[in-house]
Amino acid sequence: MREFESNLEAANKYLKRFSSNITGHYINGEVTVPAGCRTFENTTPNDQSPLGEIVEGSVEDVDTACMAAKHAFEEWRELAGPARRKLLHHFADLIEARAEEIALVESMDCGQPIRFMKQAAIRGAANFRFFADKAAEARNGLALHQDEHTNYTIRSPIGPVGIITPWNTPFMLSTWKIAPALAAGCTVVHKPAELSPLSAMLLAEISQEAGLPAGVWNTVNGFGEVAGKALSEHPAVKAIALVGETATGSHIMRQGADTLKRIHFELGGKNPVIVFDDADFERALDAVVFMIYSLNGQRCTSSSRLIIQNSLADKFITALQERVKALRVGHSLDPETEVGPLIHTGHFNKVMSYMDAAREGGATVAVGGTRREDLGAGNFVSPTLFTNADNSMRIAREEIFGPVLTAIGFDTEQEALAIANDTPYGLSGYIWTSDVGRALRIANQVEAGMLWVNSENNRNLPSPFGGTKMSGIGRDGGDYSFDFYMETKNVCIAHDTHRVPVLGR
Ligand code: NAD
């Protein structure tokens, strides 16, 4: 209790500046609140109380930010790799120095439990350090030899880029997208999610403290339909990296068509976790619970479909029910809380609508299914488990994005695979078995960008991260990130030995 109170007190101290001033944009090295601008209210999902007013970015604001990024690009692209490396490491130091503030502000803004948000700054700083270390070699290419020519490739930053991020883990995801862009030599216009804008402003501030030249980092607040749309249509912006819903990816593809935007999409998922009867029972149970109920189930890689071998189902589901019932739901700043409030009432209502959809479809609401009225006005859902489901039901097909798990039984390996792949999505998958051959067979055949065998989601920054099917286009991580933010040029040099074709002599 004492830690909860001290978290609240510290959070209120950090949040005061947001409640007593309008949160503006950060454009060309300055915080701006354009004259006559519209604003919208930002609230905490813990109890719906206001956290402050946020500027609603207009098409003109986006244009100003994009032009600032365009001008700054000329200088930033020329900064030598080692100098960029040093600056980005300094950026990481500053993130670490403000770790407590970032965690508390983020937790209040988006409702993610503080036990997970404590990692947000650490992960964010790690993202900066990882890509900083690659800055010096980012332009390196290949040498490709032919008998009478030598080809070599060089890479150069593509230009100003737009980065559009969601509300589920805003700080971590923003750093993950922006750090490689800066390391590559691109300048950035960031459009954070309207439902969780605060940590983006902390990042913008840090960019200034770190000494990034004006215009290298710009943040425009506001709504997707206006500010996000204007950013994805802007001719100065060469690429858009989006983390968000699948439908938003389609919008951006259309919006960016006239200016031929390069796109990188990390979108929704309906990820399977397949548990065979030879799995390590306790480890599989821990991971199944963690991968859907952590981060309030608002996690792109959450395993929202439990595909469980019928021979193990009774025992596994009985144990699972006990664990789900025991999950501690509460205020996001309470260190005991395992499941916090959902981001917004609109999203809360969407998640709750699946409780009816489950019953209508013929599934059983084995645990949860209700609002936690006892926790007040916040968007608190009881962690929910649906059983007796099949893969044709809406609860098995649509991304719910909440602490809600749908369990589906299977008998054979082929059946498990068919269920796993019977989805429009293809982000991630998890396999639990002690049979190595089976793990390999299934890992090869599950249609997803990322598979984990006998593990929860374990992130390794050099490894590719991204989805297939309706879950995304492109990969993050390691050199994959640089591929997206850079153009590759091929230079072909003759050895002066080949015969040049002759015409008109
Ligand atoms: P969202 O698509 O509603 O919003 C994401 C961002 O896009 C926001 O900043 C929003 O303002 C902006 N946006 C909305 N419409 C736009 C438009 N027409 N043009 C330009 N920008 C627009 O997503 P959300 O609800 O904030 O986040 C949840 C979704 O994100 C889930 O589907 C989740 O699976 C997905 N997600 C995916 C990953 C991944 O790595 N694959 C990671 C986290 C979240």
| The CATH architecture of the largest domain | 3-Layer(aba) Sandwich
* Helix run count: 16
Instruction: Work out the radius of gyration.
Output: 24 Å
- The total number of structural domains is 2
Assign the CATH class of the largest domain: Alpha Beta
Rounded mean pLDDT score: 97
Query: Uncertain segments of ≥5 residues (pLDDT<50)?
Result: none
| Biggest sheet descriptor | 7 strands, mixed
Q: Which percent range fits the helix content? A: 40-55%
Strand content: 15-25%
Q: Which structural category do the helix and sheet elements fall into?
A: alpha/beta
CATH homologous superfamily designation of the largest domain: Aldehyde Dehydrogenase, Chain A, domain 1
**Ligand set:** nicotinamide-adenine-dinucleotide
Task: Give the beta-strand count.
Answer: 22
| Spatial order of strands in the largest sheet | 14-15-16-13-12-18-19
CATH topology of the largest domain: Aldehyde Dehydrogenase, Chain A, domain 1
User: How far is the first residue's CA from the last residue's CA?
Assistant: 91 Å
Described by the principal axes of the CA atoms, the overall outline is globular
Can you walk through the features of this model?
It is a single chain. The protein is α/β, with parallel strands linked by helices and 505 residues long. The protein has 16 helices and 22 strands. The protein has helices at 2-20, 59-76, 81-97, 99-110, 114-135, 170-184, 198-209, 224-233, 246-255, 281-293, 310-326, 345-361, 394-397, 413-421, 436-445, 478-485, and strands at residues 25-27, 30-32, 39-43, 50-55, 143-145, 149-157, 161-164, 188-191, 217-219, 239-243, 262-266, 272-275, 305-309, 364-367, 384-389, 404-410, 425-426, 428-432, 450-453, 468-469, 472-473, 486-494. A hairpin with a 3-residue loop joins strand 5 and strand 6 (149-157). Helix 1 (2-20) crosses helix 4 (99-110). The protein is globular, with a radius of gyration of 24 Å. The model has no long low-confidence stretch (mean pLDDT 97). Bound molecules: nicotinamide-adenine-dinucleotide. Nicotinamide-adenine-dinucleotide is lined by residues 164-168, 173, 191, 193-194, 223-225, 228-229, 232, 243-245, 248, 251-252, 255, 266-269, 300, 399, 401, 427, 467, 472. Nicotinamide-adenine-dinucleotide (NAD) binds at residues 164-168, 173, 191, 193-194, 223-225, 228-229, 232, 243-245, 248, 251-252, 255, 266-269, 300, 399, 401, 427, 467, 472.
